[in-house]
Amino acid sequence: MDGTFKTVPRIFYQLYTIHGPVGAEENSRILPLVYVLMSGKSKELYQVLFQNLIEFAEENNISLTPSKILTDFEIAAINASNEEFPGVINKGCLFHLGQSGWRKIQECGLAVQYGSDEHLSLMLRHLFALAFVPSSEIPIAFDTLKSSIPPEANEIVQWFEENYVLGKVRRQLQDGNIIRTPPLFPPQLWSVHDSMESGIPRTQNFIEAWHNRWSNLVGNSHVGVYTIIKELQKEQQKVELQIENILRGAQRPKQKNAIIDRENRITTIFNDRVNRTVMDYLRGIAHNISL
After folding, report:
1. For the chain, which domains are there?
2. Cross-strand partners of 15
3. What DSSP character marks residue 131?
4. Is the dihedral of CA 156, 114, 185, 176 positive or negative?
5. Can you give the pTM of this predicted structure?
6. Under a CB-based contact definition with an 8 Å cutoff, are residues 82 and 88 in contact?
7. pLDDT tens digits, residue range 126-144?
């Protein structure tokens, strides 16, 4: 699930899309299945959306019982889906985690140094390689890692610690123990370790690719209501054609060799984790991810 803002008519806030797997094995694809023009992004609006989907599914004898939902770290959508789909497991998209990190790097004035200093760049990517560690082990791995990151990135390390690992410090007790607020995005939300083991997508790159293609297709920012509806109708025709190809057994388009090679390297490192120290494991993953 993800939202895009650039192309929507000004009377709306976002075009929210829900993508899902269609087909199985070699011919499976992730396709857009729901398009929603929304006036905001509050929890209440997302609840109305999910309630309407549930009602539609019931009226059409569709089993709508998702076990996992991959999101873009939108807290309102996560909370709404937890309420409307009891027991669902929400996972944050690794791509969006990296995007958030890149924005923080820019905010801290380190973008130029990140591009020119290979050591700083690699060590910061170690932070996001933590996503490949079991969620229960991430705090310990983070504690091992943080002293190795160059001091000029201390603000980024603190930001990551407070928002993604341990939470903000509220107070320190006389015995030395620290009381913290829970992190906004706890490790169990963004760890992809379980997804790696079960073969579930760990990123919404396929959705981001769709958004980029959609923006190019529409061509302009904030088009009119008539235009966006016509473009959505055209897009749905393409989706139905892809579904027809899946039904006739056509294999999905092949990925680029560079992507396949990178995924194979990550899988090799992941499978070799028990033979590596925490730092060696994170370093291996960091070499194969980007922000």
Report:
1. 2-93+204-247 (3.30.420), 97-193 (no CATH)
2. 4, 37
3. G
4. negative
5. 0.84
6. yes
7. 999 999 999 999 999 999 9
